[in-house]
Please model this.
Amino acid sequence: MMELDGNALAGDLREVFATDMTGAVFTCAGCAHTGVLATLRVWQPAPGLVGRCPHCTDVVLRLVRTPTRVFLTLTGATRLELPLEP
Ligand SMILES: [Zn+2]
Model:
């Protein structure tokens, strides 16, 4: 095993976040429900967008935009699953 810094994630993260994420499958940390992000119940402004699980209403993600940054919090999801383009 070799220890690297976070720059080793660059290629894979670019692939993950440069695609339409609404088809990504989340697993809710609160109830283990799985579904695509498009099925979240979204509330705004909170500030930003708050996506809640359609099954248990726990917060799955928060997305806040500022003029210079985007903050994405995924503490309510234990996993995101994205299909890869062939
Ligand atoms: Zn849930």
Notes: The helical segments are 10-17.
